[in-house]
Design brief:
Strand content: 5-15%
Radius of gyration: 22 Å
Shape: elongated
Order of helices and strands: HHEEEEEEHHHHHHH
Strand order of the largest sheet: 1-2
Structural class: mainly alpha
Number of strands: 6
Length: about 280
């Protein structure tokens, strides 16, 4: 099945706009900081290890941004899909969409439409995560965790070598890095670097928690709503559950979002027992 693209991609709430803008801003800033500020301080440019880490960082950046874009542009709603004409098992009528909604779909009050196998509305992408873009969202989170953890490892050496812990002002710099910059108490490059470091560290913890949640969801074959309500009727077994998110080429689909990996079902009709198809 060929993936459909969203026709409207505007941000619908102030929270979506703020979160989306933050991600759009922080990713290139962090990329520049890690590869053009931190890395040259660790390894002389042109050396083997410098080139190795520069290539790894760039590949991570490509995977993060491409997965982020794919999550946004892939349409996982019922728009343009042929819905069941009769009230079949687990179907329901959506009064807002004025149509019979298929099993595992739920209406999003922000997106104003029913989403196939809806997991949640992500404020950082400004769209819902459902059957057809869950793979890309999972990859976005996974590679973001790897990148932030990778960066934090090097940042510890870069930042802490110049920090004096026995200074009261340093404590305020660590606890209120943005306030120190915003109110002009310290507008040095070092304070800006400290802010990026703390954002990166928090990002590592946040993405790790998010990654654990979605690994558990994928392994159990559930969406968030189903997990919260104890619904496990679509748990097809570990292998098949992974295929439901990463597609038939799950073993290589995680490497890059550009790898085509067709999903085994159409997101509308669900089998009680999963049948493998190649």
């Amino acid at each position: 099945m060929q993936l459909a693209l969203r026709k409207t991609m505007y941000l619908k709430t102030p929270t979506d706009f703020g979160s989306f803008s933050f991600v759009l801003l922080i990713i290139p800033i962090t990329y520049y900081f890690e590869l053009f500020v931190v890395l040259p301080s660790m390894y002389p440019p042109g050396t083997l290890w410098y080139n190795f880490h520069f290539i790894c960082g760039t590949l991570l950046m490509i995977n993060i941004t491409s997965s982020f874009v794919a999550t946004i542009i892939v349409d996982t709603s019922i728009a343009g899909k042929v819905m069941p004409s009769e009230m079949e098992k687990d179907c329901r009528f959506c009064a807002v969409c004025e149509t019979i909604a298929p099993p595992r779909s739920w209406h999003c009050d922000i997106c104003k439409i029913c989403i196939l196998k809806r997991d949640h509305h992500c404020v950082f992408t400004g769209c819902c995560i459902g059957y057809f873009n869950h793979r890309y969202f999972f990859m976005f989170v996974m590679y973001l965790f790897i990148a932030t953890f990778y960066g934090t490892y090097f940042n510890n050496y870069f930042i802490w070598s110049d920090v004096n812990f026995w200074n009261l002002k340093t404590v305020f710099k660590l606890v209120f890095p943005l306030a120190m910059l915003a109110f002009g108490f310290d507008t040095s490059y070092q304070q800006f670097y400290l802010l990026i470091y703390l954002i990166n560290t928090i990002g590592t913890l946040f993405t790790f928690a998010l990654l654990c949640i979605h690994v558990k969801l994928i392994m159990s074959g559930c969406a968030t709503y189903e997990k919260n309500h104890g619904i496990h009727s679509h748990n097809y077994g570990l292998h098949s559950n992974i295929r439901e998110v990463l597609g038939k080429k799950w073993y290589i689909a995680w490497i890059c979002p550009f790898i085509k990996s067709e999903l085994p079902q159409d997101g509308i009709h669900w089998s009680e027992t999963h049948v493998h198809s190649n």
